[in-house]
Amino acid sequence: MCLIYFAAQRWTHVSFCTRRDLVSRHNMTYLVATVNDYTDIRLFALRRIKEATLSETT
């Protein structure tokens, strides 16, 4: 899945591809993913995702 995501720390949109899963905590839903070739797991708030598309490699 490739995303355009609002990065609050940079105050801008960033694009990247992920390997992913979803998790819900209280009233928030997050995309749990690794990005590109990195192995660390990141949480992305679904409300900040501007656009998502499926890629051939997912």
What level of helicity do the residues show?
Answer: under 10%
| Residues in β-strands, percent | over 45%
The end-to-end span amounts to: 6 Å
Which structural class best describes the helix and strand composition? mainly beta
Give the overall average pLDDT.
Answer: 77
Q: Could you say how many structural domains there are in total?
A: 1
Number of strands: 5
Low confidence ranges:
none
* Rg, nearest Å: 11 Å
Overall body shape: globular
Following the backbone from N to C, one meets helices and strands in this order, namely EEEEE
Q: Sheet bearing the most strands, described?
A: 5 strands, antiparallel
Question: Would you give an account of this structure?
Answer:
The chain is 0% helix and 64% strand. By secondary structure, it is mostly beta strands. It has one domain. The chain has a 5-stranded antiparallel sheet with strand order 4-3-2-1-5, with no helix packed on it. The mean pLDDT is 77.
Keywords:
58 residues; mainly beta; five-stranded antiparallel sheet
In short:
The chain is an all-beta fold.
